[in-house]
Write a structure and sequence with these properties.
- The complex is a heterotrimer.
- Chain A has one domain.
- Chain A is rod-shaped and about 60 Å long.
- By secondary structure, chain A is mainly α.
- The mean pLDDT of chain A is 83.
- Chain A has one helix at 3-40.
- Chain A is built from 1 helix and no strands.
- Chain B folds into 2 domains: 12-224; 235-346, Rieske Iron-sulfur Protein, CATH 2.102.10.10.
- In chain B, β9 and β10 form a beta hairpin.
- The model of chain B has no long low-confidence stretch (mean pLDDT 89).
- In chain B, 49% of the residues lie in helices and 12% in strands.
- By secondary structure, chain B is an alpha+beta fold.
- Chain C has one domain (3-73).
- The radius of gyration of chain C is 15 Å and the shape is elongated.
- Chain C has helices spanning 3-35, 44-56, 58-65.
- By secondary structure, chain C is mainly α.
- The longest helix of chain C has 33 residues, at 3-35.
- Helix content of chain C is 72%, strand content 0%.
- The chains are: A mainly alpha, B alpha+beta, C mainly alpha.
- Chains in contact: A-B, B-C.
- Chain B binds chain C through residues 2-7, 115-116, 118-123, 126, 128, 135, 138, 148-149, 151-153, 155, 157-158, 160-166, 316, 337, and chain C through 1-3, 5-7, 9-10, 35-39, 41-43, 45-46, 49-50, 52-53, 55-57, 60-61, 64, 69-70, 72-73, 75.
């Protein structure tokens, strides 16, 4: 790789790693919320707020 | 190489590589199907077509993860470099697997509605504003389009037509495709899973890819920032000739411009750009074969005295002036593109 | 995404690729040598192999056919 390409990689990846981590954590949180709601739903017919 | 285009420039190595790739894919798909049937209770068991479309999707994700790991790993250790030689065949295979996945999804989930399956793919899950229930299919579709463009331009013809810089810029889109695929899996398959295995595998794979890229990127940037110090007249100190193995090079980093590979060929010292014209491979990590500097990635060759590829090839890289003073090699940081050869410096102790 | 917008997305993509097919066909028949001098005697199999790329990247292909090239590639 030439200097410009090395610089592009070095700049891109910290940003991309953060985005990936955020998306990963976010989707796990959503899943946890949905799973909890699904477990509680039969007990409270109004909905697991 | 701008001479005689063929479908694939087959070599025995490439044939072994592709055979291993084919075996790997078949074993992966088989193992996925067996595990999918063995570890799900009979009541929850997916239909064969559902299992198959998931197997293709998982294989594409695994292969893409592997593809992205190869580049930075080859920077960390030359042991991984052979995996680079034929990486484009991995990429095309990955697109094929992703396309099979998408085709089965279209057939199974959208093929039976009254709507056109393509329209149904984008319209059947219309909650673009919420995360849970976000139509993750469209993310996969965008990633598939990126993989298609890359697979379609993987032949060397495209490297020559677009130029190595634009080709590389285009193919760096794969990182965004990978990000889209990770989110596609996390919002799709993982949301429906009871076990945490899926999420764990995706997390480990993506985490590893991100980690090695950040580490290697930072290391290379540090190396570029800590350039070898040039004297006021532009000469850089390389070191004594006997510290360079015969036919090998030492790479120096000038304050500006590309890295320089300083080769020793017997008693002759040559300096040549470290960047191969083909795909930017590190020439200084290659060796001199038949009097030519040979790129470690795909074997492109350059004469060290003028930087030109031997006929009939027409590629050309910069060369640099060298001198030896008090048993130490110096190289001038300014590239030479003239028509005359740059004569090598000759070591005093010759024939070591 | 509403059905209407989904249809528009596919229509745009299809239109883009239709123009691409036209450009690809014409380039393969008449413009290959101009695009890449080394490609004048390209075997049919390789022509078919590069056709999808010509279709997907037709704006770039047109630019190259008209002689536009990045400065750093012009040595």
């Amino acid at each position: 790789m030439n200097r410009a390409q090395r610089r592009a990689h070095a700049r891109l990846w910290p940003v991309l790693a953060l985005l990936l981590a955020a998306a990963f954590a976010g989707s796990l949180l959503v899943k946890a919320g949905v799973d909890r709601a699904a477990r509680e739903a039969p007990a409270s017919p109004i909905g697991g707020g | 190489m701008a001479h005689g285009y063929r479908l694939v420039q087959w070599t025995p190595f490439k044939k072994r590589y592709d055979l291993a790739l084919l075996l790997g894919v078949v074993v992966f798909l088989g193992a996925y199907l067996v595990a999918g049937l063995a570890f799900t209770p009979p009541g929850d068991r997916p239909l064969p077509i559902q299992l198959a479309l998931r197997a293709f999707g998982a294989a594409a994700f695994a292969l893409l993860t592997l593809i992205l790991l190869i580049g930075p790993l080859a920077r960390l250790s030359p042991r991984f470099t052979p995996l680079l030689y034929n990486r484009r065949h991995l990429g095309v295979t990955c697109f094929g697997l992703a396309l099979a996945h998408a085709g089965l999804v279209g057939l199974w989930y959208h093929g039976f509605s009254d709507l056109n399956p393509l329209v149904s793919l984008l319209a059947s899950n219309p909650r673009y504003s919420s995360i849970q229930g976000f139509p993750f299919e469209s993310l996969g579709l965008v990633a598939l389009l990126i993989l298609f463009v890359m697979a379609a331009t993987s032949h060397d013809f495209w490297n020559n037509v677009l130029g190595p810089n634009m080709w590389k810029a285009l193919h760096m889109l794969v990182y965004w495709a990978y990000g889209l695929v990770v989110v596609h899996v996390m919002l799709g398959a993982v949301q429906g899973e009871k076990s945490a295995v899926y999420a764990a595998v995706v997390g480990v794979g993506a985490g590893l890819v991100a980690l090695v890229h950040v580490l290697v990127g930072a290391r290379e940037a540090r190396r570029d920032a800590r350039a070898d110090i040039a004297a006021a007249d532009g000469w850089l100190r390389v070191g004594p000739p006997d510290e360079i193995a015969d036919g090998r090079a030492r790479i120096v980093t000038p304050p500006t411009g590309e890295r320089i590979a300083v080769f020793r060929d017997g008693a002759a010292i040559h300096a040549i750009s470290n960047v191969c014209r083909h795909q930017g491979g590190p020439l200084g990590e290659g060796r001199i074969v038949d009097g030519c500097v040979t790129c470690p990635w795909h074997g492109f060759q350059y004469r060290p005295q003028d930087g030109r590829s031997p006929a009939p090839f027409t590629e050309r890289v910069a060369v640099y002036r060298t001198r030896i003073e008090d048993g130490v090699i110096f190289v001038h940081g300014e590239p030479v593109f003239g028509d005359e050869d740059v004569p090598p410096s000759v070591t005093a102790g010759a024939a070591t | 995404m509403a059905e209407r917008s989904a249809e528009i997305v596919w229509l745009l993509l299809g239109g883009y690729l239709a123009v691409g097919l036209l450009v690809a066909g014409l380039t393969l028949l008449f413009g290959l040598r101009r695009l890449e001098p080394g490609a004048s005697a390209m075997p049919l199999a390789v022509r078919l192999l590069i056709a999808p790329g010509l279709t997907a990247l037709w704006p770039l292909v047109l630019a190259r056919l008209m002689g536009l090239r990045a400065q750093e590639d012009r040595r």
